[in-house]
C-alpha cells in the first residue's frame, strides 16, 4: 500500500508487504518451510537442481551511492570452495560487467552510526541465500536500492541478472566443475571419514583483514568512507560430522519436513546393535519474545558414546549425500537454525532427558529402504507450530471450518486458515459482504443505529457465503447474502422466537450452522430452535417452564463436564438430518447467589447450583429431526415481513429411554455422533462417577443399547 515503506521511491500504487498472508516473512522460512510459497520454491529447487540461485530484493537501508548491492553465502557450513570461488572469481567479474554498463554495485551492508563499519546481514540458512548455499548452489542476494527511482531499480536488477547469466554462459564448464567437485569431496569424506569434517552450527560476524572503500554521502555530498567490512563469518560452535542420524519413526512431522527439503531419508529394514553417540540435554533456553510466530529454542547438551540396539523401522539420514550439510544443520541438537530452534522437538527437550535423534559416528553397513513419504502419526497441536506456553494469550481460539481439514486461526491482527493435513496456511477469504450494503439493509429493517456496530463486529458467515449471522449481546439477525426475492433480507431471531413473551431481555445464543449449511440452530429461554434457511421455517423444542433448559448446559455441566465456557448442549448429526440435545429440569436445584464486582456498584447474579448433597438437575437426552425443506404457507415478501412474521412450528422429539436408571441421579457426561451419523453415542454416569456406561442408539434416538460399563473404586 501507499503507507508501506513510505521512503521508497515508487511504484506509484505503493509497495507490497514483506510478510505473506500468514504474517510469515518468507526470507526467514527456508528451514522450517511453513509457508506454501516457500514449500513451492523448495519443491522447484528439488526438481531442477539449480547451479545458480538468485533472490531479488529491494533494500531501504543506509544512504549510499550504489544502485544495487549483493552478497553470497556467509555460513561456514556452506562449502568453502563455493564461497571462495564466488568471492574470488565470480562476483568480481560480475561487478566489472556492471561497471561497464555504468552501474555501480558493491557487497550488501549498512553503515554503523560512526560510518566506519559496513555490516552485512545474518548467516543462518533461514535466509534464502544461505539456504541455497547450504544446498550447494552458487547463491546470490540482490538488493536494488529503494532511494533511486523505480525505473532505475528495475533496470539495475535487469542488468545484474543479465551479467550473472552472461558469466554463467561464459564459464559454464567451470561452474559445473566447481559445484560437482564440492559435492564429490563432501560425499567422499562423509562416506569414509565423516569425523574429520568439523561441521559449523553457529557463527559470528568479524571484519575482513583488509579495509574497504564504500561510496556514501557526507552532508549531502558524495564521500568515500574507509570501513571495516563486517561480513567475514567464523564458526563459534562446531561438531564432528556423523556418518548418519537415527530418528524414531514417531517424529513423522519432522521426517516429512526432511522429505520436503529433498533430503534422502531411509528406513532401517533390519535391526542392529552398534556404537552410537547420544546427546543428553543439560539446559533448555526459550526466547521470551515471538519470532516468526515461534518461541525459539536452544539447548546445551553433553555427548557420550555407547552401544545400543537400533530397532527395525527406525529412520536413517546419512550425511554422504548432496544435501548432507542441510540435513546435519536441521538435525543437530546444537544447531542455531534447525528443528530444535523451530519447536519441532519441544515435547522432548527437558533437562536430563536424552535428545531423541541419535548419531552413528563411523561408517557402518545397514539394510535400508528408501523412503519417499511418511505416514503422519503425530497429533497436531498448536504447541507443535508455535512452541509451548503461547506468547499471545488474548487471541481467539482456533475454529474448525465445516467438514474439512481447515482451522481458522488468528495472530491477533489477521485471520488465516491452517490446513491440519498439510500444516500449510492460506489467507482468510475477504469479507463476504460490504458493510455499506449491510448498513442500508439494517436501517430498512428498523435496527437501532446504536446496535449496528456491535452487530457487525463478529459476523458468522457460512462457507458457501449464502448466509450470515450478525449478533451482539442484545440482538441476533440472520442476513441472506444471496436472495433472489428481496434486497438483503433480515430476520430478527429474537422477535421470531419470543414465544411466551415472558422475558423481553432474553438473549439469543449458541448459534451454529449444520454441516450442510442449510439450517441454523440457536437457543433462547423459550427452547432450542432450528431455522431452515431455505424455507424460513423455524421449528422449536420448547422449554416447558423457565426452570427448564433445552440445548443449553447448566452452570455445573459446562464447568465440570463439557469444558469451562462451553454452554452448548446440542449436537448436529454429521449428515445434518438430526439434532441431539440435553434437556435440564432445574426445578429442585437450589439458587446460589454471587456478587459480580466488575460493575462500579456491584451486581448480584443468581444461578442454579447444587452443592454437595443437594439435588442435581434432572437431565434427559432428546433427538429431533432437522427442519427440512417444508414449503412455507406464507412466503415472506419484505425485509420487515421477515422480521416480524416468521413461520414457526413445534418440533417433534424422541426422548432416549434411560428407564433402567430410574431412581439414580444421573450425569450425561458426553453426547456425540458416530462418524457416519447413523448412531448416537451417550456416556451415562452416576453422581459419584464410580461407573460410566456407553449407550448407543439409532440416529432418531430409538433402540438404546448399553455397549459396556467402565467401573472403578475411585472415580471416572
Find the count of extended strands (DSSP E, 2+ residues). Answer: 39
User: Which strands sit side by side, in order, in the main sheet?
Assistant: 14-9-13-10-15
Number of helices: 13
Helix percent reads: 10-25%
**Judging from the principal axes of the Cα atoms, what is the shape?**
globular
Q: Roughly what fraction of the amino acids lie in strands? A: 25-35%
Low-confidence stretches: 387-394, 629-645
Structure summary:
With 716 residues, the chain is of the alpha+beta class.
Describe this structure in words.
It is a single chain. The chain has 716 residues and is of the alpha+beta class. The chain contains 13 helices and 39 strands. The strands form ten sheets. It has a five-stranded antiparallel β-sheet, with helices on one face. Strands 24-25-26-27-34 form a five-stranded mixed β-sheet. Strands 28, 29, 30, 33 and 35 form a five-stranded antiparallel β-sheet that branches. β18 and β19 form a beta hairpin. Residues 387-394 and 629-645 have low confidence and may be disordered.
Fold topology:
Layout: H1 36-48, E1 52-59, E2 68-71, H2 80-100, E3 105-107, E4 110-111, E5 117-119, H3 128-134, E6 138-145, H4 150-170, H5 172-192, E7 198-218, E8 221-240, E9 244-247, H6 252-261, E10 265-268, E11 272-286, E12 297-310, E13 315-318, H7 324-331, E14 358-360, E15 368-371, H8 382-386, E16 399-400, E17 406-410, E18 415-419, E19 424-427, H9 435-444, H10 449-457, E20 460-461, E21 467-471, E22 476-480, E23 490-492, H11 493-497, E24 509-513, E25 519-524, E26 527-532, E27 537-542, E28 548-550, H12 555-561, E29 570-572, E30 578-585, E31 591-596, E32 603-608, E33 618-625, H13 639-644, E34 647-650, E35 654-655, E36 666-673, E37 679-686, E38 691-698, E39 705-711
Parallel strand pairs: 1-6, 2-3, 5-8, 27-34
Antiparallel strand pairs: 2-6, 4-5, 7-8, 9-13, 9-14, 10-13, 10-15, 11-12, 16-17, 17-18, 18-19, 20-21, 21-22, 22-23, 24-25, 25-26, 26-27, 28-30, 29-30, 30-33, 31-32, 33-35, 36-37, 37-38, 38-39
Amino acid at each position: 500500500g501507499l503507507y508501506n515503506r513510505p521512503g521508497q521511491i515508487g511504484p506509484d500504487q505503493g509497495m507490497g508487504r514483506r510478510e505473506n498472508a500468514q504474517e510469515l516473512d518468507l526470507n526467514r522460512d527456508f528451514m522450517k518451510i511453513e509457508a506454501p510459497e516457500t514449500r513451492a520454491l523448495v519443491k522447484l529447487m528439488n526438481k531442477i537442481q539449480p547451479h545458480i540461485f538468485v533472490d531479488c530484493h529491494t533494500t531501504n537501508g543506509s544512504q549510499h551511492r550504489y544502485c544495487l548491492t549483493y552478497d553470497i553465502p556467509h555460513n561456514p557450513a556452506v562449502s568453502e570452495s563455493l564461497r571462495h570461488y564466488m568471492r574470488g572469481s565470480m562476483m568480481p567479474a560480475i561487478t566489472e560487467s556492471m561497471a561497464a554498463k555504468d552501474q555501480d554495485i558493491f557487497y550488501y551492508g549498512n553503515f554503523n552510526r560512526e560510518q566506519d563499519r559496513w555490516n552485512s546481514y545474518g548467516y543462518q540458512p533461514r535466509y534464502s541465500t544461505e539456504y541455497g548455499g547450504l544446498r550447494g548452489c552458487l547463491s546470490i542476494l540482490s538488493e536494488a536500492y529503494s532511494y533511486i527511482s523505480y525505473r532505475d531499480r528495475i533496470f539495475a536488477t535487469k542488468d545484474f541478472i543479465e551479467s550473472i547469466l552472461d558469466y554463467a554462459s561464459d564459464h559454464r564448464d567451470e561452474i559445473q566443475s566447481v559445484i560437482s567437485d564440492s559435492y564429490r569431496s563432501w560425499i567422499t569424506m562423509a562416506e569414509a571419514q565423516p569425523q574429520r569434517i568439523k561441521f559449523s552450527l553457529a557463527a559470528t560476524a568479524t571484519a575482513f583483514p583488509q579495509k574497504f572503500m564504500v561510496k556514501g554521502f557526507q552532508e549531502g555530498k558524495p564521500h568515500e568512507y574507509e570501513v571495516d567490512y563486517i561480513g567475514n563469518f567464523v564458526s563459534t560452535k562446531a561438531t564432528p560430522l556423523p556418518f548418519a542420524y537415527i530418528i524414531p519413526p514417531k517424529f513423522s512431522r519432522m521426517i516429512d519436513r526432511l522429505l520436503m527439503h529433498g533430503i534422502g531419508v531411509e528406513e532401517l529394514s533390519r535391526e542392529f546393535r552398534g556404537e552410537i553417540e547420544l546427546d543428553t540435554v543439560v539446559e533448555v533456553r526459550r526466547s521470551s519474545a515471538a519470532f516468526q510466530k515461534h518461541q525459539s529454542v536452544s539447548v546445551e547438551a553433553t555427548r557420550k558414546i555407547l552401544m545400543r540396539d537400533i530397532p527395525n523401522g527406525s529412520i536413517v539420514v546419512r550425511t554422504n549425500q548432496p544435501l548432507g550439510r542441510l540435513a546435519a544443520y536441521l538435525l543437530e541438537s546444537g544447531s542455531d537454525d534447525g528443528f530444535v530452534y523451530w519447536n519441532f522437538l519441544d515435547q522432548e527437550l527437558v533437562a536430563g532427558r536424552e535428545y531423541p535423534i541419535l548419531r552413528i559416528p563411523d561408517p557402518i553397513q545397514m539394510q535400508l529402504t528408501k523412503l519417499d513419504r511418511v505416514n503422519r502419526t503425530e497429533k497436531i497441536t498448536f504447541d507443535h507450530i508455535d512452541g509451548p506456553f503461547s506468547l499471545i494469550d488474548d487471541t481467539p481460539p482456533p475454529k474448525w471450518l465445516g467438514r474439512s481439514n481447515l482451522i481458522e486461526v488468528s495472530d491477533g491482527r489477521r485471520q488465516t486458515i491452517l490446513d491440519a493435513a498439510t500444516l500449510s496456511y492460506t489467507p482468510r477469504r475477504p469479507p463476504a459482504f460490504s458493510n455499506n450494503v449491510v448498513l442500508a439493509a439494517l436501517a430498512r429493517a428498523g435496527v437501532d443505529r446504536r446496535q449496528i456496530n456491535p452487530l457487525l463486529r463478529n459476523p458468522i458467515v457460512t462457507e458457501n457465503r449464502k448466509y450470515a449471522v450478525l449478533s451482539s449481546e442484545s440482538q441476533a439477525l440472520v442476513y441472506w447474502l444471496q436472495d433472489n426475492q428481496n434486497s438483503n433480507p433480515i430476520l430478527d431471531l429474537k422477535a421470531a422466537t419470543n414465544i411466551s413473551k415472558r422475558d423481553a431481555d432474553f438473549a439469543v445464543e449458541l448459534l451454529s450452522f449444520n454441516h450442510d449449511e442449510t439450517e441454523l440452530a440457536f437457543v433462547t429461554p423459550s427452547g432450542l430452535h432450528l431455522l431452515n434457511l431455505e424455507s424460513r421455517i423455524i421449528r422449536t423444542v420448547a422449554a416447558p417452564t423457565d426452570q427448564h433448559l433445552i440445548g443449553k448446559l447448566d452452570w455445573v455441566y459446562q464447568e465440570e463436564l463439557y469444558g469451562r465456557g462451553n454452554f452448548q448442549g446440542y449436537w448436529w448429526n454429521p449428515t445434518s438430518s438430526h439434532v441431539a440435545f440435553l434437556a435440564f429440569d432445574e426445578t429442585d436445584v437450589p439458587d446460589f447467589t454471587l456478587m459480580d464486582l466488575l460493575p462500579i456498584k456491584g451486581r448480584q447474579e443468581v444461578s442454579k447450583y447444587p452443592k454437595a448433597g443437594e439435588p442435581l438437575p434432572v437431565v434427559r437426552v432428546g433427538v429431533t429431526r432437522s427442519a427440512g425443506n417444508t414449503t412455507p404457507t406464507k412466503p415472506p415478501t419484505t425485509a420487515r415481513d421477515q422480521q416480524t412474521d416468521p413461520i414457526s412450528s413445534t418440533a417433534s422429539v424422541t426422548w432416549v429411554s434411560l428407564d433402567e436408571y430410574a431412581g439414580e441421579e444421573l450425569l450425561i457426561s458426553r453426547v456425540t455422533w458416530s462418524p457416519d451419523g447413523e448412531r448416537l453415542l451417550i456416556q451415562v454416569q452416576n453422581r459419584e462417577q464410580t461407573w460410566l456406561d456407553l449407550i448407543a442408539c439409532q440416529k432418531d434416538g430409538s433402540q438404546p443399547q448399553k455397549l459396556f460399563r467402565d467401573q472403578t473404586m475411585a472415580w471416572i
